[in-house]
Amino acid sequence: MKFSILACLALAGTALSTVVERATPAEEPAELLKRSSTSTAPRAKCGTAFKYTGVNEAGGEVHVIPGTLGTDYTWPSPSSIDYFMGKGMNTFRIPFLLERLVPPATGLNGTFNSAYLSGLTTIVNYITNTKGGYAVLDPHNFMIYNGATISDNTKFAGFWTNLAKAFLSNSRVIFDLMNEPHDIAASTVFASMQAAVNAIRVTGATQLILVEGTSWTGAWTWVSSGNSAAFAGLKDPANNIAIEMHQYLDSDGSGTSATCVSSTIGAERLAAATLVLDPNTQCISAITGALCSMQQSGVWIGWLFWSAGPWWGTYFQSIEPPSGPAVSSVLPAILPYVTA
Ligand SMILES: *[C@@H]1O[C@H](CO)[C@@H](O)[C@H](O)[C@H]1NC(C)=O
C-alpha cells in the first residue's frame, strides 16, 4: 500500500493544511563533512516540497439548519483565496453541510439542493478553474446526518456517487469523504469509507480521495483509536488515496486552548502516525533530520553515504546501483539534500 497523509494542523482555531508524503525506509549517512566558516553555499529547505498546502475556508457548514445564505452561513471569499495563493499556497478545503446539500426530505442519497450546490460549485470553480488551485470537498458532518449516525453505507456511498458525478470533469477537486467521525468503531468508519471509495471509482472519477478515521481522525490517537488496524485494509481501484489526519497542539488535543504544549508537540504528535504507516520512517527521519540540521547550522560542507561498492550484495546499507537495498530505501530521501 502507498498512502500519503494529509495533515490538517490547527492552532487555536487557525487552520493550516499540509501534505506529508510517506517516506521510504532508510538507514544512516556515514561521513559528515564540516563546512568552512567562510562558505557561502546556499542552504536548502528541510526535505521535499509539499504538493498540497493551504487553508480550510470555513463558512458553508455553519450549523443552523437549514439556515439562510448570508445570515446563517456563507461561502468563502475569492479575495481570501487570492491572498493565500499569492503566498504560494494551492489547496483549499471547503466545508459544507450535508443537510443543506441533500435535505432530509429527500435523504442522504437523494437529489441535491440546486442553490446550495451552485454556491459550492461557484467557489470550487473559482479555486480550480480561475486560480488553478485544488479544492477539497468536505462534508463537515462528523458522520451524523439529520441527527442520527450515518449507518447505511448504501446511502453514504450513494451520496458520494452523486457528488463524484457532479464534479467528475474537474480534475483539481479532491474528495474528502467525511469530516471527523467520532464515537463510532474504527472498523465501522472504515467500512463506510471503503464503500464510498468504491462507489466513487465506479463513476469513473479518478481524483484524489481523502479518508478520515474515527476519534476525530486524530493523528496522535491513530493507533490507540483502532484506526491504524482498521484502515490497513484500505483499497482504492484507482490507487489515488490518502488518509487525512487532524491534530491540535494544546494539552488535550481539542483546539480549545490557545496554549500549545511545547514547541515540539506538533512533531511529536505526528510521529506515531508517521511511524505506523512506515516502520522505517524513524531511520529516514533520523537521516533527514541530521541533514536538515547540518544545513541550518551553516558549518557543514557536505556528506557522503556509507556505502556503495560492488561487493556489498544485499547488505541493508548498500547503495550500489542498481539494486543495493539503500538505492530504493535511502536515496529518494536524501536526494533533496544533494543540491540546494
Ligand atoms: C438510497 O439508498 C437506499 C438504501 O438505504 C436504496 O434502497 C435506494 O435505492 C437509494 N436511492 C437512490 C436514489 O439511489
Judged by helices, strands and strand pairing, the structural class is alpha/beta
**How helical, in percent, are the residues?**
25-40%
For the largest sheet, list the strands in their spatial order: 1-2-4-5-6-9-10-11
**What small molecules are bound in this structure?**
2-acetamido-2-deoxy-beta-D-glucopyranose
**Span of the ends, CA to CA:** 31 Å
List low-confidence stretches. 9-44
Helical stretch tally: 10
Mean pLDDT: 81
Q: How many runs of DSSP E, i.e. beta strands?
A: 12
Q: How many whole angstroms does the radius of gyration measure?
A: 22 Å
Q: Explain this structure to me?
A:
There is one protein chain. With 340 residues, this protein is an alpha/beta fold. Helices cover 31% and strands 17% of the residues. It is built from ten helices and twelve strands. The chain has helices at 78-86, 98-101, 114-130, 153-166, 186-202, 227-230, 265-277, 281-297, 325-329, 331-334, and strands spanning 5-11, 14-20, 31-34, 53-56, 91-96, 134-139, 144-145, 148-149, 173-176, 209-211, 241-248, 300-304. The chain has an eight-stranded mixed beta barrel. The protein has a two-stranded antiparallel ribbon with strand order 3-12. The chain has a two-stranded antiparallel ribbon with strand order 7-8. Helix 1 (78-86) links the parallel strand 4 (53-56) and strand 5 (91-96). Helix 4 (153-166) packs across helix 5. The longest helix has 17 residues, at 114-130. It is globular, with a radius of gyration of 22 Å. Mean pLDDT is 81; it is low at 9-44. 2-acetamido-2-deoxy-beta-D-glucopyranose (NAG) binds next to helix 4. 2-acetamido-2-deoxy-beta-D-glucopyranose binds at residues 109, 152, 154-155, 158.
